[in-house]
Write a structure and sequence with these properties.
This protein is an alpha+beta fold. It has 3 helices and 9 strands; from the N terminus they run E-E-E-E-E-E-H-E-E-H-E-H. The strands form 2 sheets. A 5-stranded mixed beta barrel has the order 1-2-3-4-5. It has a 4-stranded antiparallel sheet with strand order 7-8-6-9, covered by helices on one side.
C-alpha cells in the first residue's frame, strides 16, 4: 500500500495534489475545521485519496472525491463519488496506559494485520489506521475493543463499511 506521510510531502515535489476537507470541529477535540489530504488526480475535478484522515470523518484511503478550485487555487472536496471499501480507524494511546504515549507501540499491536497507518505527531501520538478490503475485521475489532477495555488506548471509527459493522 502506498500511504503518504502528509508532513513529508510538498505538492511541488510529487504528482499528488492536496484536497481540503471542511468540517464542523467537535467539542473537546482538536480546534480545526479543515484537513488537507493527499490525492492522486484523476479525470476532471476528481482525485483518489492517498493519505489517511486524522480529523475528517466519512473518508478512507482510496476513496474518490470530487473537488472545486477556489479563487486562491485551493482544492476543496465537494463530495465522494466512489468508495474504496477501506475503513479508517483512529487510535490514541492512553499516556498512563501500558503502551505509554507511543504511536509506534500502537503500530506494533496491529502489525499482525499489516495495516497502513500514520501518526499525527510525537506530541499527539494519534494513529490513523487504514484497514483495507479483505482484512480480518473481526480480529482487528477485537483488539481495538480489548485495548479500550484494558486502558491501552481510546479509539474511534471515522469511516467504516457494512462489512465492518457486520464483523
Amino acid at each position: 500500500m502506498d500511504v503518504m506521510r502528509p508532513d513529508r510531502l510538498d505538492e511541488a515535489d510529487t504528482d499528488l495534489i492536496k484536497i481540503w476537507i471542511k468540517f464542523v470541529p467537535r467539542d473537546g477535540w482538536l480546534p480545526y475545521d479543515t484537513e488537507g489530504l493527499w490525492a492522486e488526480p484523476l479525470d476532471g475535478h476528481t482525485a483518489r485519496v492517498r493519505s489517511i484522515p486524522f480529523l475528517a470523518n466519512g473518508i478512507a484511503f482510496g476513496d474518490v472525491l470530487n473537488y472545486t478550485v477556489g479563487e486562491d487555487s485551493t482544492r476543496w472536496a465537494s463530495g465522494r463519488v466512489a468508495t474504496s471499501g477501506h475503513c479508517t480507524v483512529r487510535v490514541l494511546p492512553t499516556p498512563a496506559g501500558p503502551l505509554g504515549p507511543s504511536a509506534e507501540a500502537v503500530h506494533r499491536c496491529f502489525a499482525p494485520w499489516n495495516l497502513g497507518g500514520e501518526a499525527y505527531s510525537k506530541e499527539l501520538p494519534l494513529v490513523a489506521l487504514d484497514i483495507p478490503v479483505g482484512a480480518d475485521l473481526t480480529g482487528i475489532k477485537s483488539l481495538l475493543d480489548r485495548g479500550v477495555e484494558d486502558g491501552w488506548w481510546y479509539s474511534e471509527t471515522a469511516c467504516v463499511t457494512d462489512a465492518w459493522r457486520a464483523a
